[in-house]
């Protein structure tokens, strides 16, 4: 069987076979690397400046000169006011714009195709308007043929065509003085040209359409429709009625204030009428007010009722621990599983108002600020601040156990040294045991301990490092104080 060489694509410019090592692709054709240049100026091309026309290659400048739009205003692409006759093209294409015959379009059934040409519309060229699909080329203004998009497309009142915004205003917009180009300022030739004015808009005062009792606008009583609806305090208002009761300033959701008389006010008028009055409240309530209104009259006019919730007693053990009154959600403060009134949630000693950061639960089932808690239940002795008793050995100078009331837990959960319950505000942890801060000291020298000098001993006690080394450390020559070199002990 004779040898048959493999067929390779031919270069459109020289007609020779193109191999993979030297091919360049453009317009569905393969070229040699040496043939991949402009057909007019001979400039070598690449993917960024290549323009293909009927299997011929051009750079972008030459393609614009040969096939681009011609005439005034097209600059370098067509030679602005150029005297070039196009002799170098050896044809007449420079003198006239080549117009291609449009390809025939397959017609769609009635009412299913493009509204302008009637052809099938495919997804790649689909434009939507009036609930119909248009070709991208047909999506133009019916008057000036300007290309449209979703921003400037206007559907005409003829319910068939689409227009740009300018043509829509000229054809369907308002006419007369003051409407400029949209309606023809001082226009007087509309009837001569066969045009008519836009129909006059009938203004209906919706306040005259009365609503059922209690369902209309609170100000005028008229029916409120969705186009003019404004909501305030669950009531529906006309947009034109949604104004301040006193100064008639137009309101919105930011500056509107609902008054106790079920009307709406701006912030300034609300402050003047319902806000606090007297010296220091400035214009909101009449700075140095001299309008003859006494303080008693102002207090009587304020729609505020102060209810002392402490008089509402709760069942035994369920109310506020300090006053015994019922605690409601609006004033609830939590501490150690008990609910307190916000005004009762203060230090038992200095009566300082507390919050979740400052509050400390004491062993006496009261709450204290940090300073008072430290004075009453904190460690005592030299270096502890509020109680600087001149102790020289780090021991507490006050017997805390005499102040602690209650029974010791029997399950071993108390402090290993004193046996009483350990609360969160004074808890110190070592070897899975919980200690009071005042009990957290060396068992031998009673030095106060922390996480840096704590040592847990085998006997269940805690020691400082020096005492631990002396009692449980390695012994012998070379271990210093830990083993007592030449120790006489």
UniProtKB/TrEMBL annotation:
Superkingdom of origin: Eukaryota
GO molecular function: actinin binding; metal ion binding; structural constituent of muscle
One record GO biological process: muscle tissue development
Pfam families tied to this protein: LIM
PROSITE patterns, sorted: LIM_DOMAIN_1, LIM_DOMAIN_2
UniProt domain LIM zinc-binding: residue ranges: 9-69, 112-174, 215-276, 318-379, 413-474
Alphabetical UniProt keywords: LIM domain, Metal-binding, Myogenesis, Nucleus, Repeat, Zinc
InterPro entries, per database record: Znf_LIM
Cell location: Nucleus
Gene Ontology cellular component terms for the protein in this record: nucleus; Z disc
Protein name (record): LIM zinc-binding domain-containing protein
Organism: Polypedilum vanderplanki
């Amino acid at each position: 069987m004779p040898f048959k060489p493999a067929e390779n694509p031919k270069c459109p410019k020289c007609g020779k076979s193109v191999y993979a090592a030297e091919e360049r692709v453009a317009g569905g054709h393969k070229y040699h690397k040496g043939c991949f240049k402009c057909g007019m100026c001979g400039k070598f091309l690449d993917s960024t400046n290549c323009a293909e026309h009927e299997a011929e290659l051009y750079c972008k400048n030459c393609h614009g000169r040969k096939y681009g739009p011609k005439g005034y205003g097209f600059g370098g692409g067509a030679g602005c006011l150029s005297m070039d006759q196009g002799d170098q093209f050896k044809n007449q294409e420079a003198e006239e714009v080549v117009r291609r015959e449009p390809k025939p379009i397959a017609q769609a059934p009635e009412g299913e195709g493009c509204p302008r040409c009637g052809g099938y519309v495919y997804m790649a060229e689909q434009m939507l308007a009036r609930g119909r699909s248009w070709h991208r080329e047909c999506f133009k203004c019916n008057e000036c043929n300007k290309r449209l998009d979703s921003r400037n497309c206007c559907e005409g009142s003829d319910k068939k065509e689409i227009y740009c915004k300018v043509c829509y205003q000229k054809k369907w917009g308002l006419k007369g003085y003051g409407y400029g180009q949209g309606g023809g300022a001082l226009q007087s030739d509309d009837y001569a040209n066969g045009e008519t004015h836009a129909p006059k808009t009938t203004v209906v005062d919706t306040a005259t359409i009365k609503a059922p009792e209690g369902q209309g606008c609170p100000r005028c009583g008229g029916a409120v429709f969705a186009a003019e609806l404004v909501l305030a305090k669950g009531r529906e208002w006309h947009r034109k009625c949604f104004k301040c009761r006193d100064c008639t300033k137009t309101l919105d959701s930011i500056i509107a204030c609902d008054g106790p008389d079920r009307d709406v006010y701006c912030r300034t008028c609300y402050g003047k009428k319902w806000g606090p009055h007297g010296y220091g409240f400035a214009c909101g309530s009449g700075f140095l007010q001299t309008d003859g209104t006494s303080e008693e009259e102002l207090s009587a006019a304020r729609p505020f009722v102060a209810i002392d919730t402490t008089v509402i007693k709760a069942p035994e053990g369920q109310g506020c621990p300090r006053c015994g009154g019922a605690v409601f959600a609006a004033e609830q403060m939590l501490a150690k599983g008990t609910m307190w009134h916000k005004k009762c949630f203060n230090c038992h000693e200095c009566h300082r108002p507390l919050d979740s950061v400052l509050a400390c639960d004491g062993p006496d089932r009261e709450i204290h600020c940090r300073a008072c808690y430290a004075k009453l239940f904190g460690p005592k002795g030299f270096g502890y601040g509020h109680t600087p008793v001149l102790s020289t050995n780090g021991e507490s100078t006050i017997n805390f156990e005499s102040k602690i009331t209650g029974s010791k837990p029997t399950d071993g959960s108390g402090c290993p040294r004193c046996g009483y319950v350990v609360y969160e505000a004074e808890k110190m942890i070592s070897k899975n045991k919980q200690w009071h801060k005042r009990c957290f000291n060396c068992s031998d020298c009673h030095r106060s301990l922390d996480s840096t000098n704590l040592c847990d001993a085998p006997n269940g006690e805690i020691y400082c490092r020096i005492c631990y080394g002396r009692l449980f450390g390695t012994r012998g020559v070379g271990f210093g104080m830990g083993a007592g070199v030449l120790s006489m002990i």
